[in-house]
Amino acid sequence: MAASDSSFRRLIPIYLFTLLWVTSWSISASGPVMPLYIRSLGIGVTEWGLLVMSNALGMVLLEWFWGALSDRADRRIFMVISMIGMSTIFPLYTLKVMRPYFSVLQFSIGAFAVIMGPISRALVSDYSSARSIGMSMSLWSVVMTLGHMIGALTGSYVAQVWSFEQTFYLSSILSLIGGLSVLVALRGGGRRRPHLEGGDLGILKGLNTLLSRPSIRVLFAVAVFSFMGRSVTWSFLPLYASEEVGMSTVEVGMVFAVMSLTQLAAAPLFGRLSDRVGMKRLVTVGFALTSLMLLIYFFVETSFQLILVSIGVSAFLSVSPLLLAMLFEATPGRLRGMSMGVYGSFEDMGIMIGPPLYGLIWSIYAPGLAFVAGAVFQSLSILLILGIKVEPERD
Fold first, then answer.
1. How far apart are CA 295 and CA 290, in angstroms?
2. Each residue of 273-316: pLDDT tens digit?
3. C-alpha to C-alpha distance for 89 and 107, rounded to whole angstroms
4. Which CATH number does 198-395 carry?
5. What's the farthest any 2 CA atoms get from each other in the chain?
6. CATH classification for the domain delimited by 1-194, as one of 3.40.190.150, 1.10.620.20, 1.25.40.10, 1.20.1250.20
7. Alpha-carbon Rg for the chain in angstroms
8. Which residues contact 48 (CB under 8 A, 6 or more apart)?
9. Is pLDDT of 332 > 50?
């Protein structure tokens, strides 16, 4: 028990810095403020879709790079790089001279932000005992959700009461404080994970091993289509709520906060229920209901209706962590870290592909049809899930 308490005390700074990071990230970049700010500058919906793609491209191309480096150096250094990098870029969005280069800023923010996800998870793993890793990762997920909720509320409030520009300055200050504090609070650094045997050759061999397994290939494909479907909510729901339903900036932020709160309540319930009905069956039903909820956005006319549908989307998408559990079972123990990293890259691919398509659909046809397209992609992931045959890996 004493060892467990000691591990938790060492994890507290990591959780706090992760909360600070995801809050600053959500205030300006991944919450409701960024798309509303982009539209306030007169930038079209199609262009916004391309900007989302630029952000995802930075994550796809560099997530592997940062992950590989973190196994060879003190992980806290990468937390500093992420936070300081983001604190430098956020204020640039407020400069008129930088508007032609927003795609570069989006790529850069994605490249720096993607560091913190895998690094914070790795640090949690480093500081956790084998008996408490499940609880530690669950707390990490809770911290992430809380950060998104706080960021959405804070960012939308600051934007409406003061200005959009102030949200970027606030994000920059929070990131700077976090980056400068990491070196002080995480004395001694994290324990390093052993390198894969054989260096780069070992990495390639491990990747080939993963891709040789049909169930893992299918789960990677599910990640692409599922994130293509759900990306319509965080990239275009703020615009839909503001321009089509007539909600204020604060009201849009409250929608995203309620969605995060719903996830906090629903995810543990689905986790427990999966032990009784099976993960595959629960994910299939959850994604089917998610597709239905996305389809209903097309018929939304009032803010109350939009909030109800958004709660439904968030609740049913809370089955998504079960996909990671299925992947965990299907992956050899020695390759689970790599497997999670590759899975994250496929998620980023879905984010990179989906929003540009939704922007075109919104501009050429009708805003509501973007959510219909999201429902279609989400449904395609269901067809893939039905073909999964996962046998738990024992080695």
1. 9
2. 877 777 888 889 999 999 999 999 999 999 999 999 999 999 99
3. 11
4. 1.20.1250.20
5. 62
6. 1.20.1250.20
7. 20
8. 35, 38, 39, 235, 239, 355, 359
9. yes
